[in-house]
Amino acid sequence: MNQKLSIAPEVFTYMEKVTGADGVEVIVNLPKEKIEKINDICHSFDNDPRELINVLHETQHTFGYLPAEVQDVIAHNLTLPVAHVYGVVTFYSFFTMIPKGEHPISVCTGTACYVRGAEKVLDEFRKELDIKVGETTPDGRFSINCLRCVGACGLAPVVLVGEKVYGRVSPDGVKSILEEYKK
Amino acid sequence: MSQYKMHVLVCAGTGCHSSESNLVYEMLRDEVERKGLGREVQIISTGCFGFCEKGPIVKILPDNTFYTQVKPSDAREIVDEHVIKGRSVHRLLYTDPETMEHVLDSKHMGFYKKQLRIALRNCGTIDPENIDESIARNAYQALGRVLTEYSPQDTIEIIKRSGLRGRGGAGFPTGLKWEIAGRNEADQKYVVCNADEGDPGAFMDRSILEGDPHSVLEAMAICGYCIGATKGLVYIRAEYPLAIRRLKTAIAQARDYGLLGENILGTSFSFDVSMKYGAGAFVCGEETALIHSMEGKRGEPSNKPPFPAQSGYLGKPTNVNNVETLANVPVIILKGADWFSAIGTEKSKGTKVFALAGKINNVGLIEVPMGITLREIIYEIGGGIKNGKKFKAVQTGGPSGGCLTEEHLDTPIDYESLTAAGSMMGSGGMIVLDEDDCMVSVAKFFLGFTVEESCGKCAPCRIGNKRLHETLTKITEGKGTQEDIEKLRNLGSVIKDTSLCGLGQTSPNPVLSTLDNFMDEYLEHVHEKKCRSGQCRSLLYYVISADDCIGCMACKRVCPTHAISGEKKEVHVINQEICIKCGACMEKCQFDAISLLNDYPRVAVAINN
Questions:
Q1: Minimal Cα distance from A96: which residue of B?
Q2: What does DSSP assign to residue B460?
Q3: Residue B443's closest CA among B358, B508, B377?
Q4: CATH H superfamily, domain B6-109
Q5: Domain of A80?
């Protein structure tokens, strides 16, 4: 079983050899500290493949997102095929392979927010930032995502910027929310 | 609790928390300390009161004064006036919208009058992070009684006789479920609490976990005793950080008190609970999908049988119950099966928690006896439709439920009656729609949700729902035909009949129920190219008023598709066939001569042609 990645080495800044719990050696495009961090996370869950989702939660919490290289390291620690890890990452909407912006904007598109005009608010964010849902602005400052119901339906429509909740947002109010973070 | 003369309860549920109730709590605490009242007045942050519309909520005991929309800056006045001088702060009291009078006692508020809180009994009453307060409200008493006085079979009998049915949606009898799991022999069994509340607009499970976590843990232990399991797992959404935190605290405290762990209450029964996190997949509410997700796999459902009671988590017999179902269990044990079965209708016993949202005055979480009518919920508890608009429909059962209309307003609500009306109980989401909502768009919205959340395992759900969504989009864009309407109905019933799991079997409900109840709106979209509520953008038309247009050519110059014709100082006309509805003309016009109408301007088109 030789799973060496067949990508030209000179493309990458970092090249590290990783030996997973399965004893397979792979070359991954990640700095050593990151690999060690991922190994630590996996070990804290006893490298148990059933804990994959918890491992992914923890890893995303640490790095902000789950790029292919990170999944590679996790797969080897938990003795799972990379395809399995990739399958799980792409299945669940909570996991992302694209780094989010410095100020991630989440527009609630649950039913209560929808009937109170969330779609128009979302359109306004898209227009103002000129990006699509799931994308990050080129300067890395903002990203837009939809989420389904934060349960603050009394405040509908609801927008989250990072952890901060904005209630009863109207399309006209979008600019002033963004202004708060542009300074 | 007794040494304090007064208790100030501050709601710390997610809704109120989002409007800075944590600051209200801190300000009140500091103010009380500053006035030297720290030993007499206790400030408690509680779970959800349910009245989210008017949050943050502050309730003062013993007199039951109910303050709404409290800001951090109001803390000083509440302490000075109410706590010290005993006068209520009138401007913060709830105003009855009918009599326009302030309501002092929350018992007299329309929102609470018709409610019967069993599952939510402790939400908004206790500090969920303090186990002693739960114990003072009888927590773990039922567990104690079961372990020392009843056999597992006795206990299952009580639950069976009570008539309790699953509150997660399907309504399967809980006692029977336990009995089946109990009968299967295995070296290890599992009790799973399904807290993967994925229905947008439903947040009862979260509120229970945030406001009264011990009731759920106690019920899981009781279930463990009945079916012979020693391990419990809570599968909870990662999107609920507050609920996760409170549950973790509760588990740790229960372990400290010997209410979870080895030899509970000195008996030979051992039971412990750990947590598993969801990662944002609606389908994981389905029990087989949930079990796969707990095993670290994609949350795809599998064929039943085998049922989880036979082969569930790690291939062992597993009993999966919803949070709200579990929260009912301890009360049933303490008060008896007869007490519980006396509430509700013939086949649906007890109460149901609904999350009331949408175009309604009192958005919030309510718990009502089964058999109550929609009219009572919407007009008496919910306070009627927002801004005096006309009621159009109420969508129950989440994304896979259906829309009920005015004619269903007086039907008593239970599992059977909702299904008969083309909807379902679901987890209890209740979204009220008014005359401004387009029913075709609403159906499209729900289908958009199912398309995104379909796991993709079976073709009817994966492909069928996508086609339904495309057809609905076509209709809302004004490109629909009569044939499309027929197609929606046929395809919808095929998807229902052939899908693998509950998600696909119910996902066409929003389409089918709106076809049944709002066919006229579909026909208008298709034949008249008209959306009566003005929600479908493609069916709105920019029209220049002949009276106001001075013929300045400004709109004509700005139109990207050259859809506007007319010479200088002549009235301009928009060719609807070319117009792409960008709105640039309306923005440019200085004379307010351009308006947006939802009726196809046939005359204007005739002139153009």
A1: B279
A2: I
A3: B508
A4: Glutaredoxin (3.40.30.10)
A5: 9-91
Q: Chain A residue closest to B12 (CA)?
A: A152
Triad B17, B18, B20: Cα angle to 5°: 65
Q: Which of A57, A112, A149 sits opposite B358 (nearest CB)?
A: A112
Task: For residue B597, list its beta bridge partners.
Answer: B541
DSSP assigned state of B367: E
Give B456→chain A minimum CA distance, Å: 10
Identity of the residue in A94, A156, A167 whose CB atom sits nearest the CB atom of B279: A94
Interval B303-335: pLDDT, tens: 989 999 999 999 999 999 999 999 999 999 999
Q: What is the pLDDT of residues A34-90, one digit of tens each?
A: 888 999 999 999 999 999 999 999 999 999 899 998 998 899 889 999 999 999 999
Each domain of chain B, given as residue ranges in start order, spans 6-109, 131-340, 351-434, 439-528, 540-608
One domain for residues A132 and A80: no
The Cα of A114 is separated from the nearest Cα of chain B by a number of Å equal to 8
Number of domains in chain A: 2
State pTM to two decimals.
0.89
Three-state DSSP at B576 gives coil
3-state secondary structure of A3: coil
Query: Residue B141's pLDDT is what?
Result: 97
pLDDT at B434 over 50: yes
In angstroms, the CA B85 to CA B180 distance is 60
Pick from B385, B380, B323, B379: nearest CA to B358: B385
The minimum CA-CA distance between B387 and chain A, rounded to whole Å, is 13
C-alpha torsion B520→B524→B527→B529, nearest 10: -170
The predicted-structure confidence for A120-130, as pLDDT tens digits, reads as follows 999 999 999 99
Residue A32 lies in a domain: yes
For residue range B63-114, list pLDDT tens digits in order: 889 999 999 999 999 999 999 999 999 999 998 887 888 888 888 888 999 9
Do residue B280 and residue A92 have CB atoms under 8 angstroms apart?
yes
Asked if residue B209 lies in contact with residue B246, where contact means CB atoms within 8 angstroms, the answer is yes
Fold of B439-528: de novo design (two linked rop proteins) (1.20.1440)
Residue A96 within any structural domain of the chain: no
Rounded to two decimals, the ipTM of the complex is 0.85
Q: Provide residues of A within 8 Å CB-CB of chain B.
A: 48-54, 56-57, 84, 87-88, 91-95, 109-112, 114-116, 147-156, 158, 165, 167
Which of A48, A60, A111 is the mutation pick for testing B, counting most B CBs within 10 A?
Answer: A111
Chain A residues with CB inside 8 Å of B398's CB? 111
Is residue A146 assigned to a domain?
yes
Q: B268 vs B190, B228, B254, B258, CA distance in Å?
A: 18, 12, 17, 12
